[in-house]
Amino acid sequence: MKKTAVVTGASRGIGFAAAKALLEKDYNAVISARSPSEGVNDLEEQYGERVRFVRADIGREEDRKQLLREALEQYGRIDILVNSAGVAPRVRRDMLEITQADYDYVMDINLKGTYFLTQAVANWMRAHSVAGRIINIGSISAQNVSLNRAEYCLSKAGERMLTQLFAARLAADHIGVFEISPGVIDTQMIRTVHEKYEKLAESGVIPMKRLGTPEDVAGIICAIADGAMDYATGTVFHCTGGLHIPSL
DSSP state, 138? Predict the structure, then answer.
């Protein structure tokens, strides 16, 4: 039976690149997002029954249940979960001015939603003896502070511990759990500060002197999905162009 990957936040950016790359490697792909995109429609036309789009906000319990239910009804199994769904703050505020609504909006999707979707998929994998792989898309913001988006940094720091916890809990079940930690990736999430990051990259703040691409991250996802990293469960794979390397 063909293996199946569930990819959240996959209508664009890293999630879309991951779903496309996994389809190219002959996986079925369940693409989840709060709304579809032209790119998703193109994938459905190209790959037909090997693609299933599920409209879901992973911050909502009912949506998580629906995502799992539709994936299993369509393909009968889940081998890979890519937790790519994530949001930036609606408004970048100084950390002394962030509201509870700001905080809840980011945390509900980035951390709570990721935790409980991972829990549900992990329990299904364990119950069906599937040696699956769970890949969390973290961020360099788990370790680098941004004072005008503290809630995002906290969500990604929590996701890093989430990866460690699930990796330790599921290791005996042969379910690998990994984090990919992107640096500055050229996606819609940075559209309002794109010029700033381009200049920083060119100045050498990013040693490779370019922004990352969603395809840079998707390449690591595919290596993990194919089993090349299984004994490295719990590992954080940095995809930053060298930005994460401490330097003077």
Answer: -
Has residue 248 got a pLDDT over 90? Answer: no
Residue whose entry in the numeric block shows the structure tokens 């994936």: 71
- The catalytically annotated residue of 105, 152, 197, 231 is 152
Mean of per-residue pLDDT scores for the chain: 96
Question: Is residue 16 within 8 Å of 37, Cβ to Cβ?
Answer: yes
Is the entire prediction scored with pTM above 0.85?
yes
Handedness of CA 115, 121, 125, 126 (dihedral sign): positive
Q: What is the C-alpha to C-alpha distance for residues 8 and 116, in angstroms, rounded to an integer?
A: 13
User: How would you label 34-44 residue by residue, b for 16+ Cβ within 10 Å and e otherwise?
Assistant: beebebbeebb
Non-local (6+) Cβ contacts of 235 within 8 A are 178, 179, 229
Beta strand 133-137 with 80-83 is parallel
152 is catalytic: yes
Q: Which of 75, 174, 178, 70 is nearest to 118 (CA)?
A: 178
Buried b (16+ CB within 10 A) or exposed e, 203-229: eebbeeeebbbbebbbebbbebbeeeb
Residues near 231 by beta carbon (within 8 Å), at least 6 away in sequence: none
Whole-angstrom distance, CA of residue 196 vs CA of residue 194: 5
CB 123 within 8 A of CB 70: no
